[in-house]
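Hi R.,

Here's the chain you asked about this morning:
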Amino acid sequence: MTGELPTLLYIHGLNSSPLSKKANQLSALMDTMGLGAQLRVPALHHHPREAIAQLEAAIAELGRPLLVGSSLGGYYATHLAERHGLRAVLINPAVNPHRLFDGYVGTQQNLYSGESWELTLDHIQALAELEVPAPQDPKRVQVWLQTGDETLDYRSAQTFYRACALRIQAGGDHSFQGFTEQLPALLSIAGFAPELLQAIDLSVLR
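And here is the predicted structure, written out as tokens:
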């Protein structure tokens, strides 16, 4: 546990890492505000079962964090939010990713660490095991989409998460352009006090 302040768990996507741009921006802001202890950004194992075990351990440590999941991390966050009744912000989330890997079995490489690994049918089966029904609580799950996502069709998430709170921006891309400007809203959703948020200086992230 990390005390009475809100906590966040950032969940990166496939072949990503804590070194990704969004993770760096969020970490830098939290550190600048003296809130670094309230955030976890684990470097996830490529196998879903290992990754979920890491995330379960982080949740146990943080208490009831806001889950912030990007891409495949959004799929993980959906599973964990439904399993534990947690709040989540999903950023260009993957929907049923186990159905998207046709033709992709084989060698993969992490974009940040350079690690090579083999995507197997067991990875895909493990992803399928995490599938949950579409969330139905707009107060608990927000979904941030950009229509210019070149990796995932935003309309799949728009349909699957239609009962949730949807924020759809025209343009952008899979990395979610303008994430920095959304950080105050993210921390507000997490539950940080308004007076704390008023002191945010986003210029430190530019």
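One quick note: DSSP finds seven helices and eight strands in the chain.

Cheers,
M.
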